[in-house]
Design goal:
The complex is a heterodimer of chains A (177) and B (484). Chain A is built from 3 helices and 9 strands. Chain A has helices at residues 2-27, 35-64, 75-78; strands at residues 83-90, 93-97, 100-102, 106-113, 118-123, 129-135, 141-146, 151-157, 169-175. Chain A is elongated. In chain B, 74% of the residues lie in helices and 0% in strands. Chain B has a single domain, classed as Cytochrome c oxidase-like, subunit I domain (Cytochrome C Oxidase, Chain A, Up-down Bundle). The chains are: A alpha+beta (177), B mainly alpha (484).
Chain lengths: 177, 484
């Protein structure tokens, strides 16, 4: 799960940074008589940190930008064989047709809304968010997803849409091959 | 005596009283909004019963109120310090507070009388689609309240921009553009408070005008439903305004760090080329990074979303490598004696820097696909707003309270705030990584442990903030001249 990786890396980096702040705070009351050399080495360290940050920035962005969820050419335009499903949000329910698929099937959801902004959030049978796109009046966003496991998926609303936001969900059934 | 000092002398008492008035409003509203936030977490934890319609009203008020007082608190910090360097109008500063209070009354009336629950982001066309929960007048009162508050801030930033131009000759000079690119000696650059105030003025003047455009369009739509406009354009305008305004609150509040920490460490804040370059780049990035709110709007031009991701990553560099690094080097073995004020502004920088990490993660498109609008989002923004910006503002408040006010409880307040805040944001982040959606009045049983941990953390934060704010309010009994 991407979420687990992000959590682990974030907590490690956040914890490391917190430790640096805590360490500096803990030693702050003991004065350093010769501050000059210390500050000079700190600024040298910053140059290396800057270089490291640029390397990480370029590397992660290069990798991430190679896995964009945006569909330049939906299957219907490009001639690919994929299942199409129409998903429409309306305060406070979803209509998804068809809503039964099989494992391994790649589906393109044509997502829109009849009234306000909604968020089409696709949750797997273990209630992990696996994909999403916004549902907007006047626009159709195409979300492509390949079902990896059998069971009952849920579509939850992920954009606040009023009083019934939390009850706006529907089910998608995915059968084993 | 320079002309600036002369202006400062003439208005010193009333100006200090005005800053105190700002902080009184900030302290009281902050506590009330924290209680609303705690109410939401307790309701999600199923420890108290709150009807969904009331929950969403509370959510809207909490969001608008917190953003508002973040702006007000940041403005108090900025104005208090920047008037040491430029001439500013106390009248306009007070006018901003009056506009804020009028707007706050309209917004509270819209929520608790009119039932408006369209979230603080009033995402068009939701205000006109209440599902029977609120009236057009309720929604209009909310948006009129935002407009009135925006007018006050616009006046304040324009006045500060005028003051900067009168002393430095232009906003570019106030920002230190020449120093950033090596066209002028670093020693001739503006002080940090001026550079930060210039950035805030440039960003917020543009952001508030954009916000006013979409607010007026939405108001017309409320009463003339046949008048509609493009929902995606509206979303761009709203997030441009919203992102800029809330982001700038941190850049205003960080002036407290530049001005207060050196008093303790006896080390001047180092303003070198990297410092000015960071402020120039931060200005550009605050004005262009907002598309990271729209990464799941597939209808957006892809290049804008790609730029949003890259700028999100880049915008973390000045925070981490200049402000956080500068704070650490300023404090490192300086011999300072920690007290509540120094501790809070230091925590503020740490919270800001640490919060950048989960924020950048969320600004990465494949991550955003599975974490956008989960509780990861309130997790990261509470890290740099609650533990960052608000800690700086509370540090400023504590600093102004001075050493004469009762301070035995202040360290307890700081620790409660820090420990509670850490539990609170970690509960949000953990829930987000477990795919718990944000802005849900009712939670599934599997999500309750996160909500309950968050409720405990929030309770501690409220207790800590209560101590610090009461200490400040008690300090107001002392004469104005006793304050720093």
């Amino acid at each position: 799960m991407i979420q687990d990786v992000v959590w682990d890396i974030s907590i490690a980096l956040m914890g490391s940074l917190a430790a640096v702040f805590a360490g500096v705070a803990a030693g702050a009351e003991v004065p350093l008589t010769n501050y000059g050399p210390a500050i000079a080495s700190a600024y040298r360290l910053r140059i290396w940190l800057f270089a490291l940050a640029i390397v990480v920035l370029v590397g992660v962005n290069y990798r991430a930008l190679g896995a964009l969820p945006y569909i330049a050419n939906p299957a219907e335009q490009s001639g690919l064989a994929m299942k199409r499903a129409d998903a429409t949000g309306q305060q406070w329910s979803w209509t998804v047709q068809p809503n039964s698929f099989v494992v391994g099937q790649t589906v393109e959801f044509y997502v829109t809304s009849k009234d306000v902004n909604h968020g089409f959030g696709l949750y797997d049978p273990h209630m992990h968010l696996v994909a999403q796109t916004q549902a907007m009046p006047g626009f159709t966003n195409v979300l492509r997803y390949t079902f990896a496991q059998p069971g009952t998926y849920q579509v939850l609303c992920l954009e606040y849409c009023g009083l019934g936001h939390h009850i706006m969900n529907t089910q998608i059934n995915v059968a084993a091959r | 005596m320079t002309s600036i000092e002369a202006i400062g002398s003439r208005s010193r008492i009333s100006a200090t009283a005005a800053v105190r008035a700002y902080l009184v409003v900030c302290g009281i509203v902050l506590l009330l909004m924290m209680l609303l936030g705690l109410t939401m977490r307790l309701a999600q934890a199923q420890w108290i019963d709150v009807e969904p319609n009331l929950f969403y009203v509370i959510m809207t008020m909490h969001g608008a109120g917190m953003v508002g007082i973040a702006g007000l608190g940041g403005a108090a910090v900025m104005w208090h310090f920047v008037r040491r360097y430029i001439p500013v109008s106390t009248g306009i500063f007070i006018a901003n507070l009056v506009f804020f209070l009028i707007g706050a009354v309209l917004i509270l009336g819209a929520g608790f009388i009119g039932g408006f629950a369209g979230a603080w982001t009033f995402l068009y066309p939701l205000p006109d689609h209440s599902g029977g929960l609120w009236s057009a007048n309720g929604a209009a009162a909310y948006m009129a309240g935002l407009l009135v508050i925006g007018v006050g801030f616009l006046l304040l930033h324009l006045d500060i921009a005028r003051g900067i131009i009168s002393v430095y000759g232009g906003l570019g000079s106030g920002l230190g553009v020449k120093q950033a690119f090596g066209f002028a000696p670093e020693k001739d650059g503006p002080p940090p408070a001026v550079a930060a105030s210039t950035m805030a003025a440039i960003s917020n003047i543009i952001g508030i005008v954009v916000g006013a455009v979409v607010l007026v369009l939405s108001l017309v739509n409320l009463y003339v439903p046949s008048f509609t406009f493009n929902t995606l354009v509206a979303k761009n305008l709203i997030y441009y305004f919203g992102h800029t305004f809330i982001n700038v609150t941190i850049y205003m509040a960080v002036i407290a760090v530049y001005e207060i920490l050196p008093v303790y460490t006896h080390r001047a804040w180092k303003t070198n080329r990297a410092f000015y370059l960071a402020w120039v780049l931060s200005t550009l990035m605050v004005l262009t990074v907002y598309p990271h709110h729209l990464l799941m709007d597939f209808a957006m031009p892809t290049w804008i979303l790609v730029a949003g991701q890259i700028i999100s990553w880049l915008s973390g560099l000045p925070v981490l490598l200049v402000t956080a690094f500068g704070t650490l080097t300023n404090v490192y073995r300086s011999g300072l004696k920690w007290d509540a004020a120094a501790g809070l502004v230091f925590i503020g920088v740490a919270g800001w820097a640490i919060g950048v990490i989960p924020a950048i993660a969320d600004g990465t498109i494949p991550v955003n696909s599975v974490m956008h609008n989960t509780q990861w989002v309130p997790g990261h923004f509470h890290t740099y707003l609650l533990l960052g910006m608000m800690a700086m503002m509370l540090g400023f408040m504590t600093y102004l309270a001075g050493p004469k006010s009762p301070s035995r409880l202040a360290p307890l307040g700081v620790w409660l705030y820090l420990i509670g805040g850490t539990i609170f944001v970690l509960a949000f982040l953990a829930a987000g990584s477990a795919s718990v959606p944000r802005r849900y009045a009712v939670h599934l049983p599997a999500w309750l442990p996160y909500d309950r941990a968050g409720s405990i953390g929030a309770s501690l934060v409220v207790a800590g903030a209560l101590i610090l704010i009461v200490r400040f309010l008690v300090s107001l009994r002392s004469p104005i001249d006793a304050t720093p």
